[in-house]
Sequence to fold (90 residues):
Amino acid sequence: MENIHQAKCEGGPLFSLAFIGVRSRMEGRYDWAGLYHDPDDPRLFVPKRNPSFGWTINLEHPRGPTTLGLILIVPVVGIIVGMVASYRRH
Fold:
């Protein structure tokens, strides 16, 4: 009964148990900031430590750093363009 309860706490029994082998292999690939680094993993997007929280980027993938940079830069550029456009109206 305890194992079922633990599985439910980790995001549901079927979802958690399906990833048990993958998660144990992936666990050592995260750094202190929770970023994923695995040059042998061909996926660009991988599940987070707790798959209920979504996905993260594999920074050792050839397109990983570029993808992270775009995700961070695009909103900043949008905010700057909006501020400049707003300033010019006044």
Summary: The two ends are 66 Å apart (CA to CA). The chain has a mean pLDDT of 78. The first helix runs from residue 2 to 9.
